[in-house]
Write a structure and sequence with these properties.
CATH superfamily: NAD(P)-binding Rossmann-like Domain
CATH architecture: 3-Layer(aba) Sandwich
Helix content: 40-55%
Number of helices: 8
Strand content: 5-15%
Oligomer: single chain
CATH topology: Rossmann fold
Shape: globular
Order of helices and strands: EHEHEHEHEHEHHHE
Distance between the termini: 38 Å
Radius of gyration: 17 Å
Number of strands: 7
Length: about 260
């Protein structure tokens, strides 16, 4: 590897599985020290620690007190961070008319407020380091028609606007803020609990909806995050990279 992140310290929220894990692994390969945040699955977090040589930190990012305590522990063990990846996210499928107050608020708390709390807590580090923020959104937040994902899509649309506003507001500190909007990626979030046959059908269905005829893998997002974290993207700010296999006709297909 080329050591693109040598000497850098990165915090990835929700890094015990899926996209967060893939990002942590890519960063570690390029020399970064990684802070692996997790909320529940310590076993998976320890696996990522073993692979990356990083440190694990438990915190529910929707709880500001827990985020503050995580920051204290990270500063004690690893020092100040250079890179923040706001990856933590959850989703619940529901028709709009079946609005569930608890589930919608939970998505808002984790997907949006979690990114806000974590960014606020580590902003002094990023100002000093002229650091980088990468927000993980979704193509569901920029117009993809996905059945029963209205409220989830709203939280991810907010992440995209947060990215653009922070890119403007924090530019005076030379902090770059960009986002990744994945399409359908094979993770526990999307295929967890499904049978092999259900997964096969799902893969074939989504392959048919992309110009590349491919199903998304977490490593695709990890490599994009590495690009945004490194000096390779030094002239990018306030941008959203869509990684969805070239999804065909976002307005007519439904998940």
């Amino acid at each position: 590897m080329s050591g693109k992140l040598e000497g850098k310290t990165a915090l990835i929220t929700g890094a015990s599985k899926g996209l967060g894990r893939a990002i942590a692994e890519e960063f570690a390969k390029e020399g970064a020290r990684v802070a692996i945040n997790y909320a529940h699955d310590e076993k998976s977090a320890l696996e990522v620690k073993k692979i990356t040589g990083g440190e694990i930190f438990k915190a529910d990012v929707s709880n500001r007190d827990q985020v503050k305590e995580m920051a204290r522990q990270i500063h004690e063990k690893l020092g100040k961070i250079d890179i923040l990846v706001n990856n933590s996210g959850i989703w619940y499928l529901m028709p709009f008319e079946n609005y569930d107050e608890e589930k919608v608020r939970r998505m808002l708390d984790v997907n949006l407020m979690g990114a806000i709390y974590t960014t606020l807590e580590f902003l002094p580090d990023l100002k000093e380091k002229k650091g980088t923020i990468i927000n993980i959104g979704s193509n569901a937040g920029i117009g993809t028609a996905a059945k029963n994902t209205t409220f989830y899509s709203l939280t991810k649309a907010a992440i995209i606007m947060l990215t653009k506003r922070l890119a403007f507001d924090l530019s005076e500190y030379s902090i770059r803020v960009n986002a990744i909007a994945p399409g359908w990626i094979e993770t526990d979030l999307t295929i967890g609990g499904k049978t092999d046959e259900e997964i096969r059908k799902l893969e074939e269905d989504f392959k048919s909806r992309t110009t590349l005829k491919m199903f998304g893998k977490p490593e695709y997002i990890g490599k994009a995050a590495l690009f945004l974290a490194s000096s390779d993207s030094v002239y990018m700010n306030g941008q959203v990279i869509v990684i969805d296999g070239g999804r065909i006709d976002n307005l007519t297909h439904s998940i």
